[in-house]
Known about the structure:
GO terms for molecular function: acyltransferase activity, transferring groups other than amino-acyl groups. The protein is α/β, with parallel strands linked by helices. The protein has one domain: Aminopeptidase. The chain has four helices and seven strands, in the order E-E-E-H-H-E-E-E-H-E-H. The protein has helices at about 35-50, 60-75, 130-140, 155-160; strands spanning about 1-5, 10, 25-30, 80-85, 90-100, 110-120, 150. It has a seven-stranded mixed beta sheet, sandwiched between helices. Helix 1 packs across helix 2 (about 60-75). The longest helix is centred in the middle third of the chain and has 18 residues, at about 60-75.
Amino acid sequence: MAVIGAEIGLPHRAAGAKLAPMTADFIVRPARPADARTLAELRWTFKQEDYEGQSPAPARHLEEAEHWIRDRLSDGRWLAWVTETGGEICGHVYLCLVERMPEPYEDNNPVGYVTNFFVMPSQRNKGAGSALLDALKQHSRSAGLEGLIVWPSERSTPLYQRSGFQPPEELLELPLDT
Length: 178
């Protein structure tokens, strides 16, 4: 059984759990600035999964990522949720609020950009990923966000779709080569 937000103690059964029975107990809670080092280490692990070639030295990345994460969680520019099992963080998802220009005829609520969604391989298919997305969606609805956008990986697309994400009808993308 998962618990979303230790401070509110809501029991949670992840959507799709009948397809992937939960075998581990875990909690989902908002990430704190104090989690920055662990989150930086998990990001390193996450990015190594699909990386081919010689990896850069992790020390520089870990230091840079730790400061970046701590700063953004501290000032509220970014939000994140983590899942813990056995007292250890084993997954995370991030949300960046994208402001919209004021509209004269409708609300200009921000849009949420969902990114950096990762669950340790040992905790996959147990409901942790669904629970993370449920916590993010619950917050986004209560905060009045207009909607959520994500650029999913091939592996994560089915999970996002089971969670209610759909391909957009009116979105264009222009990748800029750097």
